Write the structure tokens for this entry.
Amino acid sequence: MAESDPGLRLQERRARMAAEVLDGMVERAATGRTDRAEGALALDKNVYTDPARYRAEEAHLFHAMPLVAGLSQDIPDAGDVMLFEAAGPSIVVGRGKDGVVRAFRNLCTHRAAKLLLGEEAVCQRKPRLTCPFHAWTFDLQGRLIAQPGKEGFAGHPDGARDLLPVAAREWAGLIFVQIEGAMDLDAHLADFAPLLEMLELARAEPVQRGHIDAATNWKYALDTYGEGYHFAALHPNNIGITHMNDVALFTPYGRHHRISFPEKRMAGLAQVPRAEWPTPDYGGVHLLFPNTVIFVGSVEPGKTFVQLFRLFPNAVGQMRCQFAVYAPGGVRDEAHRAEVAMGYELTEQVVRTEDYAQAAQSYANLLTAPEGFRVVLGSNEIALQRLHRNISDAIGMPL
């Protein structure tokens, strides 16, 4: 690459950030110190169980904020489309022949039939959207371009409507959709933007995807990504073997954050000269408020993957996680594809059978807990404290 190549500059930034993160994790691993809030925080059980709070979250977080619908390579070419339905209304996200990503209600303007069917976030090749009911046809700029029997609708103001647009923007490899209102993505991302840009997600190729359902409140499931306090007890046969329990490096970015969990072996690096440390890959758990977790990890040094978790509520006590794994920079060969796919299979099993199973069990217990029962988040659960305070602020309801 030429020195002026933006990709090279991003690689350099990523290398510097990886070194900074490693410094912080080695220090915390060596001392057993974790980043902390000022004190513990108690949450009334209604924070998780109250239907009124759920409706406020649906309105203020899932309808009136930018949400991640996928990554750029999920619909890489002009004429590619995918469904985005997890936040409520059915939406079509497509890349027009001009290369621009747009979103529309998945609703024919004739009699409201769905134009696109299929599985959420799976790319389909459809340069035109033809209604299966009466064959009204629209291009991916939302324009009505074919209307059988159009003379029957002549002269009526609603007789030849284009698709109903939804705010959408493609930025740094992420595709955002906002169901209601105008999107101010720059304000939403704020100082988290440079960190996301550094990940070069525009080059991340999808390898495997699916979803995980759980009978729990979406926030309880999301909490499991924000602390390593549970590693030893809940994950004794996987991450509890390799990573330190209750030790974390936490960095806030407005409503968003990054959290990194040191491996046990890192404690020994404190006794090794810094020049002899291994060259680290950049990684960490990135929370993109309100509901998206981007995890960058490594199978082994030099072999990274990106995992995208998007958590959506179906009801106050029902949620679905849209989970996908990507190969940064694209899939090199079939062996590489298999390695990245393994990052899906192993993670899906652990999240489903351990994290979300525990979240469902705990939520069921909260439903029968006495009135006034409070969940307590320790000072060591700083990411969770900030998340709940930020959600409370966004929906205008006290904790």
About this structure: The radius of gyration is 23 Å.
